[in-house]
Amino acid sequence: MKKIGEPSTGEKVLRYVLLLFVLLITVGPFLWQLSTSLKGAGEDIYTRTPSFIPHEPTLNNYSQVAEAIPVWRYIGNSLLVAVLTVGGNILFATLAGYAIARLRFRGRKIVLGLFLATLILPGEVTIISQYVTVRDLGLADTLIGVALPGMVAALNVLLMFNAFRSLPQEIDEAAVMDGATVPQRLLRVSLPAVRGTLAVVAIFSFIQAWDDFLWPLIVLTSPEKYTLTVGLQYLSGTFTQDQRLIAAGTMIAFIPIAVLFSALQRYFFKGVEEGGVKG
Amino acid sequence: MKTHRWFTPWVLTIPALAFLLVFSVWPSINTLRLSFTDAKPLGGDTDFVGVENYTELLHDGQVWTALLNSAIYMAICLPLLTILPLLLAVLVERKLPFIAFFRTAFYVPVIASAVVVGLMWTWLLDDRGLINNLARWLHVIQGPVPFLTDRWLVLISAISLTVWKGLGYYMIVYLAALGNVRKDLHEAAAIDGAGPVRRFLTVTVPGVRGTMFLVAVLVSVAALRVFSELYILTGGKGGPGGKDQSLVMLIQQYAGGFYGNLGYASALSVLLFVVTVVPMVVLARLNNRSDS
Q1: Helix crossing, A243-273 with B151-178: angle to 10°?
Q2: Domain containing B129 — which CATH number?
Q3: N or C end of chain A: smaller count of CB under 10 Å?
């Protein structure tokens, strides 16, 4: 009898054909954008018979982006917001998630319920009053104001809670016997066991902060404070209709996140398998 | 046995709790309060205006257009993004050579910013862009298809972009769920002579039904919250005559500038909340009914 685990050759071929087809749809547009960004001013990018390989590849468009908008400053701004967001989420979600999952205290259920309740609230619903809060704190049109509300996401607290909760009770008991304090138990016993989830929290926080558009668009008004996404929209709307330049700009925003993700994707998919995304 | 002092949990929880109260709990209450005022983006005098914002909202043609757009958005995204990512997850579940590469590659549109992919698609869908050129080259069309200048085609283009960007995300959600489907059921069905399609319908789908409802809820709420796709594809203008706007685009419009009106924007936010609760309640009920 044929075992179900081994697909026939025909099935394998069909699977790979489908995989390549989906690959073309999902990654193809990025490659086309990369190709456009490398085409020189002399090359007709509107030709009826599109050519994928640039005739004379050039990085000229990238340097022209830097002339049109202060792109290095925008990268720095985005990086600052992303680093604050990742740091805040890793630190505060770990502490709170650990306390709710591993320590018994009065009010624990209420705290957990509060974090859960905010999950059903789409962020866009509170974005206006969040802006009012940030403005009243004197942080309108500042990068701190952009980063602050995202520094603790309820979802991340719950992900860490979930990860800590699934550890066996015995590991704490043994540590308590040895006289380990709470910080020691958290850092030496529990945290190493939830590294996968921590990686998911870090990666998602970074991507979310780096990619965010609506919130910085609302908070920031001075062009020199723009994050990269707002700056890109500014570039395409104000300065140029040259698709080569816009393509170069989008690649500048995309490549760092693509490199980061491919470097960390192993931890990400492992974290997902640990149940990181299921919540 | 004493494991910790009474205040330790609070020391650990209070930073996160403070953020939650200041940036989630208070803003939810404040949204409701602001929706009864005429608050302005730059501060200054704020007066209570009663239900004025809400009556204005009911007579605002743009709001009704946005609601219609959202309904269409949801009606198309819901079936596509509930079913296609499941098929994709089944495709990448089988351990074959290079499968990790494909999984990662399919996830790439998810990690890219909506601004990046929005500008990318703007170029692809341009009158002289790749898609129109390819279609003309293959003689499928004579003149260019006005993807970005026709009121309905703009909406369809934005929906396609949302579906394209969401495929990988929901694929991963399904992939985690597929791991829990019992392998022996698949084997039993195979022994009974059930083909792949039949096994998918009788084993896989019932096995991930709970996840399908979860995905359906996530997709519908995401469709109602759409902003960046429509904003970028229309260059921030909302398409011809401003007809291709979503509720969130309207909220953003009233959030700043000289004509900004935070009171009205807050009333729109309350409307957005009410609208997102509808699919959650409906789908939760459907899920309960199919359980019993």
Answers
A1: 20
A2: 1.10.3720.10
A3: N
